[in-house]
From TrEMBL:
<dbReference type="InterPro" id="IPR017853">
    <property type="entry name" value="GH"/>
</dbReference>
<keyword id="KW-1133">Transmembrane helix</keyword>
<keyword id="KW-0326">Glycosidase</keyword>
<protein>
    <submittedName>
        <fullName>Glycoside hydrolase family 25 protein</fullName>
    </submittedName>
</protein>
<dbReference type="GO" id="GO:0003796">
    <property type="term" value="F:lysozyme activity"/>
</dbReference>
<feature type="transmembrane region" description="Helical">
    <location>
        <begin position="12"/>
        <end position="34"/>
    </location>
</feature>
<comment type="similarity">
    <text>Belongs to the glycosyl hydrolase 25 family.</text>
</comment>
<keyword id="KW-0472">Membrane</keyword>
<dbReference type="GO" id="GO:0016998">
    <property type="term" value="P:cell wall macromolecule catabolic process"/>
</dbReference>
<dbReference type="InterPro" id="IPR018077">
    <property type="entry name" value="Glyco_hydro_fam25_subgr"/>
</dbReference>
<dbReference type="InterPro" id="IPR002053">
    <property type="entry name" value="Glyco_hydro_25"/>
</dbReference>
<keyword id="KW-0812">Transmembrane</keyword>
<feature type="region of interest" description="Disordered">
    <location>
        <begin position="263"/>
        <end position="326"/>
    </location>
</feature>
<dbReference type="Pfam" id="PF01183">
    <property type="entry name" value="Glyco_hydro_25"/>
</dbReference>
<dbReference type="GO" id="GO:0009253">
    <property type="term" value="P:peptidoglycan catabolic process"/>
</dbReference>
<feature type="compositionally biased region" description="Low complexity">
    <location>
        <begin position="308"/>
        <end position="326"/>
    </location>
</feature>
<dbReference type="GO" id="GO:0016052">
    <property type="term" value="P:carbohydrate catabolic process"/>
</dbReference>
Amino acid sequence: MYVYRQRGGRRPFTLVSLGVFAAVAVLVAALLAVTTQGQQIRNVAEPSDYINSNLASKPQGVDVSKWQHPSPNSIDWKSAAAGGKEFAFIKSTEGTEPGNDNLASDVKGAREAGMHIGLYHKALPSMDATAQADAFAESVLEVGGEQLPPVLDFELDEGKNAEQLAAWVQEFMDRLEDKTGRTPIMYTYKSFWMVQMANTKKFSEYPLWLAEYRQEEPTEPQIGGWDSFTFWQYAGNDGQADGFPTPVDLNVFNGSKSELDKMVGTVGSGAQDTPAPSGEDKTGESESESGDSQSGTDESGTEESESESGSGAQSGDKPLTLTIPKLPIPEGSLPAGMTLPIKIVLPSSIFGVGSSGVSSDVNWLKSLLGGLPEEVLKSVEIS
C-alpha cells in the first residue's frame, strides 16, 4: 500500500535528498557491479523505535501484499504474532481484479496465529466504482468468518477532480456496505486528501486509517473532518517485523485491545458493526490516549530521523516509490543486507507532482536509472 503501499528482516535501500539523482546513479552502478554472495541480515525493531508516542503500547499490526512474498507463502505468521502483531490487513483486490495471489494462505496463516484479519482494496478511480466494490465484496464474503471492517485504499486520482473523486468514493462505500453489512474503513494520506480530495468532510463517518510516516503521533484536527484516526500506518519502506523476509508496513490501533476485538465482526447482509473507538482509552487496558502531546505528519511527511520511515519526504508530500523487482545479476548475488525487490524512495516534490502524476514511461526511467537494461526498466513499478 501503499503504498505499500510496499511493504522485515532487512531494510531496503531508500534514497532521498536533493542529490537524489546522483545517489541513484551510484546505486545502479553498484548493483550492476555486484559479484559476491549476499548475506541475510535480521534486525527486527520495536514499535518504540519508530514512534515517539504511548501508542507504541497499543495493539500493533501490519498490512501485506505481494511485496511480502519474494517466494510463495514466505511469511511466518506465528513469528509475527509472537513478535507482538495482533492484526493484519491483507490486500485482496485492485480495480476489478485479484490483487494478491497469496490471499488465502495469508488469511489462513494469520488466523491460525491468532491475529485479527481484514482485507483491503486498492482503488483505481478511472474504473467503475460499483464494479470494483462488487469484486472486493465478493472476495470479502469468500474469505468469510470474522474480520475487521473492509478497507478502501484510496490514494490515486487518475485524472479525476475532487468532486468526481468524492462521488466515486461514495458510490463505492455505499455499494460495499450494502454487500458486506460492514461500515468500511477509509485508508488515505494527508496531502492526497487535502489536495486531490479538497479536504472534503463528506466521509468523516467512516473509520480513518491514516498513513503518516514519522515519529510523532498525528494530532487533531485531522483531515476531512475526522475527530481522530482509528488506525495509523506509521512506517512503510523501512518497517521490520518478526516473520517477514521483506520490509512491511507497520500500523497501530488507536484504542484498547478490547476495542479492537469489538471491531471484528462477521460479513454479510445481517452483519452488525461496532463503532470505531473515539481515540480515548476508556477500558484501562492501554496506557495511552489519542491526545498525546506528540504531533504527526502523513506518510509523506517524515522528519529527519531515518529510523521512523526512511522516506525523508517533506511534510504533506507523499514520496514516490520505485520498486525494482529484478536485476540482471545471478540470484543470491546481492550485497549483504540487500534483498529484492529494491525500493528507491523519492520526494515527489522533486518532480512537482504526486505519485499519480508521474509517468512510468521507460524513457523517463532511463533518465533516472540509466545503466539498467530496458527489460528491468519495464518491470519497475511506481507507486
